[in-house]
Every structure is written in structure tokens, then in C-alpha cells.
């Protein structure tokens, strides 16, 4: 047994199960989904083999070749070649292949062999291959390639035991570390030759079933239909937002009542004073007002994760390609934009799969316009306060419909901005043709969905407990000090720092219908959008004094006019209210310029759109 950790790299074509294998080996829960291009950065973890060897394992972005066409593929190439800064060349490579689709991986195997690192070919998803009746002559394949081969089922408990055993045997046998061969980027002719060789090897060692599996084709005939397909996509999204409102309601009410009760207990138990106000108005009402949205977050992610694991998302990308192409977007922009529904940060990172820099930049610029989950609390709060919970035609939840509209507005404006950017910045540039492998449909795995939902819920609660809590402490402080002078009239908050800041900003925001309380909520809202909800909760509950035990929604319904509420909704579609997103844009584009461009254009859009909304609503006599 050696003490130095063995360095193992997981390499393979996209969507072959590398991350599933990584999670199985190390017990991590990195994101897994049934479409190519999920992993876009290097992740490391560790495990110990049955014989007690320490292994450091790297999960890498999938790639079809070592040419390194896009930023994610470059990472994989550099790690394998030992060129990645601060990362030693791997001692062992697991080349992970999808056993039902060996063609593309075998070509990569041939490329990898030229580098000369010790390598094991892992035939993953052997469960599906067996079920379909694909037979692989492992001895023959191993002989042809000159490599040890092990089968695995990365998503099943015990599915990698054999792999672990064989790894130990392999390591016991191979002592010397072979020198890394010289590597030159393969030409197209090299790749073609490698593909011919791969096809020859497959013909010699793989037997396909007499009756191929046609389920995927049968579903695709409907789902990819140019008209029916789009209708189905719209329907899925529509049902999702209906569910967000109708299913989440009971759980949200329960949570909301729970936090009110808790606040009341604190109020009754503690003597009146600073501590009581801090706990009740700062901590419980602030953080509680955000946590209430947990059920909605869970439902949205449940839908997204189910669709991802089923294999539908790549189809949605395919369907949207025409529409996106019209707006000057590359087809590969779809998945990054879709990830931005969760949060723009992973979305912007996922643009690494786009090889052309201009296409990638356009996608990064518009990703923050997609409705991220941090907007859900803000939208829901305002919708619940101002849109009646009515059913239209007996079956459409009006609040869900408005939410759907807000998402649609985000998407439409993203497409418009992209079209405008293309027109002004790079008119001469046509996006490259879009190629995306459509994965076979898979029954979603309950375990991985559960882990996915749990991870998201944990992240949401973690944010509530850290960023949001600390912002709430700050806001409570600003709203409570300085205290009102003796004999002062009106609520004490009017004399606080918060009121001073709010009043200073008010003239700027009055034209778009915002009062000083909203101004106070917007600035800390830069730390995380949900903070705005919590901040409004705290500001109004401090202002309201003892009797402000009412839910924040009811308070808003009394204090704001409808034009103000609409204007704030519109503001949140566009405003660059997230400092972390701006930081990631800077990191991924490598310059502050694009960060500033994003901030300025979003702010301008937000202001103009809110101004128009507010004034139009007033002109229409809404109140
Ligand atoms: N049935 C079955 N499904 C698997 C197996 N391994 C992975 N999957 C599924 O295959 C899909 C892709 O898995 P990932 O682990 O995300 O693949 P990846 O190679 O990391 O993909 P990229 O990061 O995009 O390159 C997921 O839906 C997994 O649940 C397996 O052995 N059997
Ligand atoms: Mg992966």
C-alpha cells in the first residue's frame, strides 16, 4: 500500500455516465442528467480501493475528441495531457463508454491510446445494453484495442464492484509509469481514419439485436414533430406553473403559519425591547418570509429534474433551434439558458459547451434574463397579494397564468436582446450548424431525482441561513437605528438609517412608482434577489409595530397601488439584481467589460420597462 494518492481521470464521450460513476465511487452528488454537456468543469473527489489504495478521482467534461473545440473540452484535453495548471498528469485513465453506443467513444479510445497513459475501458450502462440484446465480445474487443475492459452500471448499488476489483489487479501488475507520448492535435483525416478503425473493431466484436429498440423513435415521432412538438413543450411548461401555484399552496400556508406562530412566541416570551424586535422582525420574519417558498422551489425542480433525466431536454433544445436561430442564438445555447431557470450562475458556466466565442458571449449576456429560482419568491409574493386566486374557465389558475406570463416575458426579452446584439455587434456572423446527440429516453431514477431535489432544497435553505440572514441582520439594524427621538410622531422607522437611504433614493425611483421602502429592499437585494422579499417583510413589520403580525402579502396589498406592484414585477424581469451573476460573467468572459455591459443594459431595460408599466397602468386608471 502506498501513501501517495493515485490520480485517476474519468474521460469519455458526453452522457456516458462519467459523473454517475464519480458519484458512485466517491459518494458525492454532482449533477447528473440525460443530455450531453452536463459537466463543464473538473471536479475531484477521493475513494479507497478494496485493497486500501487511496485514489484521487477527477470527473471531467465529456468530449468526442481531444481536439478541444470548446472551453469545456479544453479542460479535459489539458488534464489528460498534463497541461492543466496545478494538476499533475493522471496515473490512470478510465475511459467511460456507453455500452449501447460504442462508436464515438471507441474513436476517442484510439486517440487516447496514442498518448500512452495506463487506461481501462469501462463499458458503462451495460444493464441497458443487455436489456436491449446487444452482445459484446469482451475478449475480442479487449484484444483488438489492447486494453483491459470492465463493465459497469454506475447508477446501481454494487454496479462498480467489479471495476474496483479489476483496478486493484491492474495496479498490482503495472509498476512502471510509462512516459507520456508526444501529442499533436489530430487532423480531420486522422479522425476519419480512427473512426474507420473504430467501426471495424465494432463490426468484429459487437452484435446488435435482430429487433432494434424503437421506443425512443416512436416517442420522438410525436415529441419532435415541428408543430405538435412545440405544443407539447408549451403544455409541459404551462402545467409546471399551474402546479407551482396549486400544489405548493397548502405547504406554504403551513410554513407561513408556523413562522407567524414562532414570531408570536418570541413576542410573548421576551420582554419588549431590542432583542425581541431583532428576533421577531429581523430573524424570524425576514428569513421565514423566504423559507415559505421552499415548496415552490421543490416543485419546479422536481419537474426540471424529471424532464432532464427522462431525456426530454435535448429534444426541447432541438425544437427550439429554429426559433433561437432566428434570434441569432446557437442551438447549443438552449441548455445553458434552460439551466438559468434554476440560477444564471450554472447557466453561464454551461455556455462552455459553445465553441464559438461570439455565440457564447451572446448566450452569457442574455442568461440573466431567464427567470431564475430566486425570482420566484418575489414574483409569488406580489402575485399572491395583487392577483386574485381565481380559476379561469374552471380549470386555469389565474395566479399560475400570470407566473407563466412572467417567465414568457423573460424568454421573449432574452431572444429580443440576442437579436439586437447580433444586429449591432456581429451582423456578419452566422451561428455554426447545431449538432447535439439525442440521448435515448430513460426512466427517471427515483434516487437521483430525490438527491437532485434534496440538493437544491439544501442550497436554498443554506442561502436563507447565510446570505439572507446576514442581510436581514443588516436591514434590521438600519431600520431600527437611530431610534426615534423622545416625543417623535409616527413610526420609529421614519427616523432610521434605512429611511434616510430610502428617502435619498426615492426621487430616482418615484417615476417608476417605487416608494422608499422598496428602495431600501432593492439594494440588499443585490446580494440575492430573495432578500428583497425578506427586507420588505422586516421594514414593514418594524414600521407596523406590534400589530404587524399579518402576512407581508396582506400588508403590501394595503400599502401599494396596483401600478406600483406591476412596476416592481416588471423591474424584476430585467434588473441586474444579483452580484454573484455579474461576478461569474466577469470570470467566464475574462473581462470586466462584459460584466459592465450586462449590468448597464439590464438596468436600462428595467428602468424603461418599469417606467412604461407604471405610467400605462396609472393612465388606465388601475389602482
Ligand atoms: N441505466 C443506466 N443509466 C445510467 C448509467 N450510468 C449513467 N446513467 C444515466 O445516464 C445519464 C447520463 O449520466 P451522467 O453521469 O450525467 O453522464 P456524463 O458522462 O457525466 O455526462 P456529461 O457530463 O454530459 O459528459 C443519466 O441520466 C444517468 O442516470 C448506467 O450504468 N445505467
Ligand atoms: Mg458529467
From TrEMBL:
Compartments, record wording: Cell inner membrane
Gene3D superfamilies recorded: P-loop containing nucleotide triphosphate hydrolases
Sections of the chain in a coiled coil: none
GO cellular component: plasma membrane
Chief localisation class: membrane
Superkingdom as given in the UniProt entry: Bacteria
Domain FeoB-type G: 5-173
Membrane-spanning parts: 223-245, 283-307, 361-389, 401-425, 460-479, 565-585, 597-617
A GO MF term: ferrous iron transmembrane transporter activity
Name of the molecule in the record: Fe(2+) transporter FeoB
Organism: Bradyrhizobium macuxiense
Amino acid at each position: 500500500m502506498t501513501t501517495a494518492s493515485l490520480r485517476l481521470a474519468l474521460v469519455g464521450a458526453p452522457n456516458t455516465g462519467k459523473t454517475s460513476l464519480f458519484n458512485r465511487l466517491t459518494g458525492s452528488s454532482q449533477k447528473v442528467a440525460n443530455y450531453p454537456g452536463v459537466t463543464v468543469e473538473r471536479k475531484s473527489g477521493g475513494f479507497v480501493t478494496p485493497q486500501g489504495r487511496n485514489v484521487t478521482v477527477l470527473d471531467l467534461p465529456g468530449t468526442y475528441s481531444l481536439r478541444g473545440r470548446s472551453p469545456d473540452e479544453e479542460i479535459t484535453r489539458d488534464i489528460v495531457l498534463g497541461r492543466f495548471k496545478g494538476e499533475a498528469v493522471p496515473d490512470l485513465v478510465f475511459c467511460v463508454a456507453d455500452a449501447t453506443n460504442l462508436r464515438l467513444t471507441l474513436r476517442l479510445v484510439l486517440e487516447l491510446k496514442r498518448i500512452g497513459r495506463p487506461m481501462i475501458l469501462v463499458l458503462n450502462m451495460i444493464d441497458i445494453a443487455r436489456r436491449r440484446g446487444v452482445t459484446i465480445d469482451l475478449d475480442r474487443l479487449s484484444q483488438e484495442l489492447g486494453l483491459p475492459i470492465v463493465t459497469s452500471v454506475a447508477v446501481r448499488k454494487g454496479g462498480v464492484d467489479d471495476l474496483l476489483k479489476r483496478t486493484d489487479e491492474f495496479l498490482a501488475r503495472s509498476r512502471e509509469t510509462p512516459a507520456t507520448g508526444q501529442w499533436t492535435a489530430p487532423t480531420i483525416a486522422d479522425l476519419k481514419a480512427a473512426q474507420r478503425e473504430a467501426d471495424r473493431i465494432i463490426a468484429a466484436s459487437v452484435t446488435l439485436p435482430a429487433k432494434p429498440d424503437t421506443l425512443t423513435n416512436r416517442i420522438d415521432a410525436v415529441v419532435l414533430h415541428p408543430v405538435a412538438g412545440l405544443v407539447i413543450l408549451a403544455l409541459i411548461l404551462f402545467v409546471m406553473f399551474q402546479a407551482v401555484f396549486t400544489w405548493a399552496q397548502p405547504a406554504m400556508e403551513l410554513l407561513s403559519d408556523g413562522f407567524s406562530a414562532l414570531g408570536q412566541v418570541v413576542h410573548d416570551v421576551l420582554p419588549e425591547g431590542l432583542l425581541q424586535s431583532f428576533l421577531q422582525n429581523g430573524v424570524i420574519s425576514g428569513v421565514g418570509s423566504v423559507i415559505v417558498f421552499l415548496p415552490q422551489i421543490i416543485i419546479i425542480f422536481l419537474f426540471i429534474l424529471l424532464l432532464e433525466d427522462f431525456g426530454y431536454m435535448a429534444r426541447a433544445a432541438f425544437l427550439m433551434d429554429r426559433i433561437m436561430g432566428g434570434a441569432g442564438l446557437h442551438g447549443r445555447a438552449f441548455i445553458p439558458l434552460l439551466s438559468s431557470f434554476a440560477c444564471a450562475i450554472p447557466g453561464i458556466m454551461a455556455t462552455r459547451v459553445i465553441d464559438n466565442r461570439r455565440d457564447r458571449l451572446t448566450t452569457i449576456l442574455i442568461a440573466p434574463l431567464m427567470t431564475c429560482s430566486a425570482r420566484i419568491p418575489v414574483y409569488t409574493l406580489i402575485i399572491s397579494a395583487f392577483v386574485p386566486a381565481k380559476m379561469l374557465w374552471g380549470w386555469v389558475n389565474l395566479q399560475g397564468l400570470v407566473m407563466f406570463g412572467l417567465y414568457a416575458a423573460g424568454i421573449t426579452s432574452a431572444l429580443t436582446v440576442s437579436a439586437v446584439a447580433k444586429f449591432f455587434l456581429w451582423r456578419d456572423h452566422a451561428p455554426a450548424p447545431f449538432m447535439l446527440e439525442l440521448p435515448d429516453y430513460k426512466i427517471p431514477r427515483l434516487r437521483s431525482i430525490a438527491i437532485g431535489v434534496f440538493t437544491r432544497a439544501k442550497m436554498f435553505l443554506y442561502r436563507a441561513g447565510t446570505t439572507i440572514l446576514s442581510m436581514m441582520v443588516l436591514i434590521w439594524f438600519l431600520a431600527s437605528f437611530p431610534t426615534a427621538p423622545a416625543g417623535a410622531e409616527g413610526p420609529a422607522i421614519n427616523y432610521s438609517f434605512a429611511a434616510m437611504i430610502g428617502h435619498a433614493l426615492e426621487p430616482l425611483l418615484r417615476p417608476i412608482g417605487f416608494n422608499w421602502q422598496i428602495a431600501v429592499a432593492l439594494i440588499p437585494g443585490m446580494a440575492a434577489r430573495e432578500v428583497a422579499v425578506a427586507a420588505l417583510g422586516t421594514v414593514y413589520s418594524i414600521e407596523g409595530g406590534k400589530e404587524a403580525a399579518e402576512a407581508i402579502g396582506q400588508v403590501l396589498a394595503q400599502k401599494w397601488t396596483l401600478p406600483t406592484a406591476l412596476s416592481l414585477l416588471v423591474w424584476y424581469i430585467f434588473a441586474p439584481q444579483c452580484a454573484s451573476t455579474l461576478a461569474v460573467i466577469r470570470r467566464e468572459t475574462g473581462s470586466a467589460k462584459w460584466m459592465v455591459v450586462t449590468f448597464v443594459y439590464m438596468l436600462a431595460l428595467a428602468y424603461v420597462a418599469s417606467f412604461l408599466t407604471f405610467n400605462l397602468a396609472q393612465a388606465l386608471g388601475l389602482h
